[in-house]
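Sample entry as discussed:
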Amino acid sequence: MVHHLFKDFLENQEVYILNENYWKDQFDNLLLQNGTSLVCREWLKTTFSNGVKFFDGNPIFNVLCPSLNKAVRIIQEEPTSNHLVISAWLDEFPTADDQETVKELVIVLELSEESRDLAKGLIKAWLVENAGSEEMQTLIDKEMTSPLIHRHPRQLQHLLPTHTSWGSLTFIEIHVFYDWPRLFTCQNVDGQLFLAVWFDETEEADLWLYVNLSPQRLATIRTGQIDLYDAFRTAENGWVHQVTTYYDDRFSQIKAVSGDTIDDDWLPKRLQRLSGASKTDLQLTRPDDSLSQLTIGAKLTRRISRETLEQRRQVLKTSQFLGTN
C-alpha cells in the first residue's frame, strides 16, 4: 500500500495548483540540497491561449535546463489503486530552428510519497549528476523493474505487438504522443516497415491499425504527398492489420482487414499529413488544427480536445540552449 498525495487534483482546481507548487518546491529543494547552481525554466505551456490552465496533469511539472540541453516532464494521473504506479523513458526533440536537440526525461506516475521519491532520484541522476543517455536508460530499466512497482499498462516497451509473425518490432519515429504514442512508424528485424495508429481501448488492451509500407511509400507519407487517411485507406497491398496489444503478458493478436472496409472513425482525419513531423509532434498542414482535429479516432477526439502539443511547447531559441541569453 502506498501513501497517495493530492488525490483529487483533477477534480479540485485549488488542489491542482497546490499540487503544481508542490512539484516546484520538490525540484527547488532537490537542487538546493545538492548544492547545484543549475538554471532551469518551464518549457511547456500549461494554459490555453486565454490563460486558463489545462488542469489535466500533462504536464503537472516541466523544466528545461538550457546549459545541459535537457528537460524533464512529469505527467501525473489520478490514483486508481493502492499500488506504486510509475514509468519513465527518454525522448528527444529539436529546437525551433533544428540547430540543437534537447533530451527529455518523461515520467508518468500516480503521485504518492513512494513514486515521488523514485521520480526525484531519476531527476537527480538526469540533471544534477548529468547522467548520459545510456547510463540513464540503465538506471530507468533498473528502477522500473522493481517488484514494488505495479506495471503501468502503457509503458513504451509494451505498446508494440509481441509474439506475432512479424517478430520483434522497434520504434522508428513517434509522430503523435499524448500520454503514450498514438501514431508512429516502426520496423521489424527483417526490415519490414509499418505505420501504426491507435484508435480505441478496452479494459484489457489497446486497439491499433498497422499498415505495411515500402521505403518509397514511407517517403511519400513522410513528406506529406499522401495524407494519413489515405496511408491506411489505400494501403499498397490493399490490406490493413487490426492489432490488439494487451496490458498483461498475453500474446498480441493481428487480424488482416481490407483497407476500404475500415470504419472512418478509426482513421486519422482527411488532409492531415506528417509533412515535416518531428519525433514528438505532428506538424499539420492547416495551422488552425487543434489536437481534437488531429484525432486518431472518435474515442480519442472525445478525450483530448486540447490545443496541439506544439502549441503547448514554447518557442525554443538556439541561443537559449547555447547559454548566450
